[in-house]
Amino acid sequence: MSDLASLEQRALTELQATADEAALRAWNTKYFGKQGEVTLALRKVGEVPPAERKAYGQEANRIKEALTNAYEAKLAGQKERQLKQSLAAEAIDVTLPGRPLIRGRLHPSTQTLRTIGSIFADLGFQIYRSREVEDDLTNFELLNMPPHHPARDMWDTFHTTTPGVLLRTHTSPGQIHVMREYCPRPIRVILPGMCYRYEAITVRSEIMFNQVEGLAIGTNVTMADQNGTITAFARRMFGEDRQVRIRSSYFPFTEPSIEVDMDCSNCAGKGCGLCKRSGWLEIMGAGMVHPTVLKNGGYDPYTVSGFAFGMGPERIAMRKFGIDDIRQFWANDLRFLRQF
Ligand code: FA5
Fold this sequence. Notes:
By secondary structure, the chain is α+β, with helices and mostly antiparallel strands. 41% of the residues lie in helices and 19% in strands. The protein has 11 helices and 9 strands. The protein has helices at residues 2-17, 21-32, 37-43, 50-89, 108-122, 136-139, 173-182, 223-238, 291-296, 313-321, 334-337; strands spanning 126-127, 133-135, 165-167, 187-196, 208-218, 244-251, 254-263, 280-289, 305-311. Strands 1-4-5-9-8-7-6 form a 7-stranded mixed β-sheet. A hairpin with a 2-residue loop joins strand 6 and strand 7 (254-263). It is elongated. The model has no long low-confidence stretch (mean pLDDT 93). It binds adenosine-5'-[phenylalaninyl-phosphate]. Adenosine-5'-[phenylalaninyl-phosphate] is lined by residues 170, 172, 197, 199, 205-206, 209, 211, 213, 251, 254, 284-287, 308-312, 314-315, 326. Adenosine-5'-[phenylalaninyl-phosphate] binds at residues 170, 172, 197, 199, 205-206, 209, 211, 213, 251, 254, 284-287, 308-312, 314-315, 326.
């Protein structure tokens, strides 16, 4: 019993003397490890004469518990001290202002596409996404341009190495995809997206540019519907007092075909540098869907009719924002892009 008492005293004194966590753990191994002094003392219960065994066992257990409690209290204190120290040493100054994030913005083409989309949404048009890689059949033939048709000269094309597969030159092949998907139901959609043409790059022409195609098909759709839709669009896009001029034109996939001009927003029709002194700016090509195209889409041209149009959002953005060079759109120059 006296061994136990001196063991407890010694262990407590040594525990008080430990200065860090490593020393604490070493103390724990010395007293509570497999060969630790407390472990051995407990194991000795069997060797104690039976008369003293009970008292010895009780005392040994009390000491074990007292030392374990003291150890755990000291360990917790030690951990708390360490945490306080590291909080003091690695203090974060939460009053420092954060680093400002550079705010992105939408590309002027995207902004224009969204404006166009929302105007046509108000007119009841849905957006239909169509592929940029097309075949010759859909980009040309089904739009009433068989091979060797002279109208193909209007659209110089990027061909892929797979014969007959090309980058679409306009969004019009999308008309075929919508018609074949919707037939025989009526249609009112716009088809926005990239087009590609093998052309000389100038201040007005790029080799890749967006178009927004429009297509409305149903019974009794007339040129009046077409002109009303286009005029409503032009006024929402460019101003309520805009005048629209319809000229006759030619596209193989519309009959009759028209070209739409709007009075120059810069000079209100008086004539200036922007409109080349004519007072008018061209905004899109359009027309009544050609019977052959309706047939290729699955519709009966004797019972339904429709109109289609195609415009260039970059050209529209140029007018709206006063941009004088279309090459700026894909030049990735932040000085240009930050202005919108
Ligand atoms: C067409 O592409 C016809 N598919 C439009 C159409 C659709 C007519 C439906 C009738 C019915 P066009 O080649 O004119 O037509 O192009 C239409 C618009 O695309 C032009 O008014 C112009 O705004 C834009 N565009 C054409 N080529 C370029 C180019 N190289 N760079 C930038 N914009 C272009």
